[in-house]
Amino acid sequence: MVIVCGVAVLLHLIPLLLPRNMPEQELAIARVTQGVEARVKLLLPLRAHPKATAAELREAAELLLEGAPAEARELAQEAERREPAAVETQLLLARICDMERMERCVRASLERAVQVAPGDARPDILRAELKEKSGDVVGASEAMKAAFGKAPADPLIGLRYVRLLRAAEQPSEALSVLAALQGKVPRARLLVEQGLVLSADGKDTEAVAVFRKATQEDPRLSLAQFELGLALVRVGELDAAQDALRQADRLDLGSPKSLAALCALQLQARLIEDARLTRMDLERRFSGRMELIRQSCSIP
């Protein structure tokens, strides 16, 4: 064991012992370096390094993004100078400018990203993410509409678009997108999304029927059982809701959300003894999630 540990330490020290005249060596050291200031000292000189590629400069900027956005922007701008047609650089610049709250810079970077890659959906996806973060769900859904138009065969983009349409209270448009995703997404998952749209539109009875179809389509899909349980609560079928939430928990033993929802339901229905048993199960299986347990299952 001592020998193995010694070899492992030596392997980590190798980058420090080699002559450091290549950008990848600075990046390798920076990846394992803690502290923003130390990383800045390692990475900022790459701006003037003749061998640094645009991809390496972008990675260096990513490593500085959280604690030193101004220095990250300098590295990204150098990457842009060396590779002007790279959409990845413009997307990175937009994220950096967003961290620095430079709205004009964000807009300019996203516009350049569209110019260099007009058929790429990623600039629209990032625009949607930034608008959603600022609370503009309508603007986010419009940006995701543009992304979906560029990549209609991408189910992940389609489902994100549906979620934003749901948040923007546009159920008919969301259902139309789900219809376009037929054959690209498993049917049970599509039914769950359809049920969520109906629930958001206040049509809980219809949503229950759709969620039940999803559980029949794929009896192993925990999400379908979970959403069925929540919808049954809203229509007042508490016993059936408890059964669905317990089944959702059995299908996904690694997540506490089904038991937490079950306990909240039991407390709301004043089933205190049942809630105590559910809380005991939560504490036994998810002792590291006590804050969630306290919030969802606070026994009076």
Structure description:
This protein is mainly α and 300 residues long. It has a domain at 1-118: Serine Threonine Protein Phosphatase 5, Tetratricopeptide repeat (Alpha Horseshoe). The protein contains 18 helices and no strands. It has helices at residues 2-17, 23-31, 36-43, 54-64, 69-82, 87-99, 103-116, 122-133, 137-150, 155-167, 171-180, 187-200, 204-217, 222-234, 238-251, 257-268, 272-285, 290-296. The radius of gyration is 25 Å and the shape is globular. It starts with a helix and ends with a helix.
Structural class: mainly alpha
**Radius of gyration from the alpha-carbon trace, in angstroms:** 25 Å
Query: What is the CATH topology of the domain at 1-118?
Result: Serine Threonine Protein Phosphatase 5, Tetratricopeptide repeat
Cα-to-Cα separation, first versus last residue: 52 Å
Which bin fits the share of residues in helices? over 70%
Strand content: under 5%
Oligomer: single chain
The average pLDDT score comes to 92
TPR repeats: 188-221
Protein name: Tetratricopeptide repeat protein
Organism: Myxococcus llanfairpwllgwyngyllgogerychwyrndrobwllllantysiliogogogochensis
Keywords: TPR repeat
